[in-house]
Specification:
heterodimer, A: 329 residues, mainly alpha, Na+/H+ antiporter like fold, 18 helices, B: 46 residues
Chain lengths: 329, 46
């Protein structure tokens, strides 16, 4: 078993990652979307060549490593800084979103449990990062991760256009718009972009609300890991089962959260770690894109998108009403 | 002599690596990255 057989596929992932980043810098498209698109095009046109498969199949390893590193960008202080009221709204909207998606996915649309949970985590916490983190915890299939990630990214693209329009039409204040974007949009990049496009103050509130929401990812991953470890065991749930099913990379993630909270990393080191996990994610998503097979996508249909759309409308409306009541329009 | 020892060392590391669960491999990659950044002040551009 030679390590050399992984090299062609790894080189393909790296090439795709660099290309996706270059497209973002020149054209402005989200690099994660481009990375998935590159993998998707490869898999659905010429197909993935056999000699690339071993290397491309390592993409889950890079996803896990990216999640571990992501812990370094989160601190306990992040939550405390945004204030109790906003934190309360963050927790409430996150819980509402997860519950609505789970309810719709399982009881109304009959989606697979894992796919519903990935959509719930992606919608409720921090977009693709949460999909990736929860995927490891619940042992989701690769195509489920790819569908959930693609669905979340689709709504990232939609909300980045719709939110500023709604904000202007309703004449929302900086605080309400910023927190609203922070608690109800999916991925961090679009939240920050939309917030600062509205105003400097809105951008600051959007970022703080979003980061405190991102900080909930550890608790959600642990909750999902515990739930699936219990439901997946043949006999009585045991500590051993919990440990076997528990995604060990979460421990690495939590260690880095603790180190970051203790101020171990300098700002330069933290920036490098963030850049490292951004590269690991884009690298991994080229591989994930190859898992989206058109034939299977057709059989899945538009149901995941419909589930997320309904949940987004509910969470977005409820949070906007609550925030307008709390802080004034 | 030296190269034999090196080959044995590499083989041992590869064997350990293959025995690790993928989750622990991810942790190892993350830990190595953080260590490289902290020890060598490695700057990773974006």
């Amino acid at each position: 078993m030679s390590a050399a057989r992984f090299l062609p596929g790894l080189a393909a992932l790296l090439l795709g990652a660099v290309l996706a980043r270059a497209v973002e810098l020149t054209v402005g498209f989200n690099h994660l979307l481009v990375a998935i698109a590159l993998g998707f095009v490869l898999a659905n046109t010429v197909g993935v060549p056999d000699r690339l498969e071993p290397g491309i199949n390592t993409h889950k390893l890079w996803l896990g490593a990216g999640i571990v590193l992501m812990g370094a960008s989160l601190t306990l202080e992040t939550i405390l800084e945004v204030g109790g009221l906003v934190l309360l709204v963050v927790v409430a909207v996150t819980t509402l979103t997860i519950l609505v998606v789970e309810l719709l996915a399982r009881n109304v649309f009959g989606l697979a449990d894992q796919l519903g949970s990935l959509l719930a985590a992606g919608s409720g916490i921090c977009g693709v990062s949460a999909v990736v983190a929860v995927a490891g915890a619940i042992r989701a299939r690769e195509e489920q991760i790819a569908y959930a990630a693609a669905t979340v990214l689709l709504f990232d693209a939609i909300t980045i256009v719709v939110y500023p329009i709604v904000g202007d039409l309703l004449g929302l204040s900086d605080v309400v718009f910023g927190v609203w974007a922070g608690v109800s949009m999916f991925s961090t990049g679009p939240v920050v972009a939309v917030g600062f496009a509205h105003s400097e103050v809105a951008g600051q509130w959007a970022t703080m609300a979003k980061l405190s929401r991102n900080a909930l990812i550890g608790a959600v991953v642990i909750a999902y890991a515990s739930y699936y470890a219990r439901s997946g065991s043949a006999g009585r749930p045991s500590l051993r089962t919990l440990w076997d099913e528990f995604p060990k990379f979460v421990l690495g993630f939590l260690v880095l959260v603790a180190l970051a909270s203790a101020g171990v990393f300098s700002s330069a080191q933290q920036a490098s770690i963030e850049n490292a996990y951004n590269w690991l994610f884009v690298l991994a998503f080229v591989g994930l894109g190859t898992e989206i097979q058109l034939a299977e996508l057709r059989s899945t249909g538009l149901t995941p998108a419909l589930v997320v759309l309904l949940a987004l409308v509910v969470a977005s409306t409820v949070s906007l009403v609550v925030l307008s009541m709390l802080f004034g329009a | 002599m030296g190269s034999t020892r090196l080959h044995r060392g590499v083989a041992a590391v590869r064997s350990r690596w293959r025995d690790l669960e993928r989750d622990w491999q991810s942790v190892a990659v993350g830990a190595t990255t953080v260590a490289a950044i902290a020890v060598f002040e490695l700057q990773i551009p974006w």
